[in-house]
Amino acid sequence: MTTESHETTGAYVTPGQEFTRDTAYIQTRVTADGRDGYPVEPGRYRLVVARACPWANRAIIVRRLLGLEGALSMGVCGPTHDRRSWTFDLDPGGVDPVLGIPRLQDAYFARFPGYERGITVPALVEVATGQVVTNDYAQLTLDLSTQWREHHRDGAPELYPEHLRDEIDAVAKLVFRDVNNGVYKCGFAGSQAAYERAYTRLFDRLDWLTQRLSTQRYLVGDTLTEADVRLFTTLVRFDAVYHGHFKCNRQKLTEMPVLWAYARDLFQTPGFGDTVDFDHIKRHYYVVHTDLNPTQIVPSGPDLAGWLVPSGREALGGRPFGDGTPPGPPLAAEIVPREHTAAG
């Protein structure tokens, strides 16, 4: 796919203003008791993602760690999109083979004709009706952990253990504000002052995370939790796109020893690095954000070999999966092409 095949997608920066994310997502939930009319049922829903997107990457990781592949199928959009919608251009004929649609917007419009907010991933779509159920990415992964338990694999980890939820939520809130969304506030800042505020908060929070992770292997407790998933998807994109494209350039991740080792530890954990497609990540940011990168030239770097260097973090203790076990290999149809990975 060439960059020339995509329309300019419009501006992401509002001159003179700071970036404000629209967080009014579709709050319908898929739950064990079906309280919103959508009960958990194997095969009833399809998780639509894009490997380029950090918010969708969370759902891909959690689904894989919990072993939900057999209960919840996954459709993968291409790395770029036009003004209208994410598209299924990776599939034969540009149509999702399960939903039978070329654009994710078709699922949104099937439930909400004329839907005016963003057509975002991840999204859960009801297969029979072709209607979007939810795109509330933060609640979605928590529900995969708590509402889909009956369909978890044997040995699935406790990513949202009840006794740690308050701490996980508190850490995740800070990480979202200053890091997950903070990089966007830098990149899409419409004024120097807005950029500098976001930049300061981002690196102050990264310094705070460095201190926290210098003496413990994981963010909360001694096992992997939802908090680690949420931080990882930003860190793994940091040097590839946020450092340069979003001007988050006090340091590269590779120049922050504690966070770099932490990110490598996660990357080398089954279910994390094997979901990451660096080619899709770079093509998305550098092609879609034409107001930041009007040439749509995608950088060749950075060198990815360092992601496979042992982290040494096991010396801090901790058990990645607690009393559980690692997930098995990815489904054959969901393997990231080798040339798009650190091993490529």
TrEMBL record:
Its recorded name reads Glutathione S-transferase C-terminal domain-containing protein
Active-site residues, as the UniProt record annotates them: C53 (nucleophile), Y184 (proton donor/acceptor)
Q: Which GO terms describe its cellular component?
A: cytoplasm
Q: Which PANTHER family match?
A: GLUTATHIONE S-TRANSFERASE OMEGA-LIKE 1-RELATED (PTHR32419:SF6), GLUTATHIONYL-HYDROQUINONE REDUCTASE (PTHR32419)
Residue numbers binding glutathione: W86
Positions of the site: Lowers pKa of active site Cys? Y242, Y285
Specify where the region named Disordered lies, as residue ranges.
318-344
- Residue ranges of every copy of the GST C-terminal domain listed in the record: 161-288
By its UniProt entry, which InterPro entries does this protein fall under?
A: Glutathione-S-Trfase_C-like, Glutathione-S-Trfase_C_sf, Glutathione_S-Trfase, GST_Omega-like_C, GST_Omega/GSH, Thioredoxin-like_sf
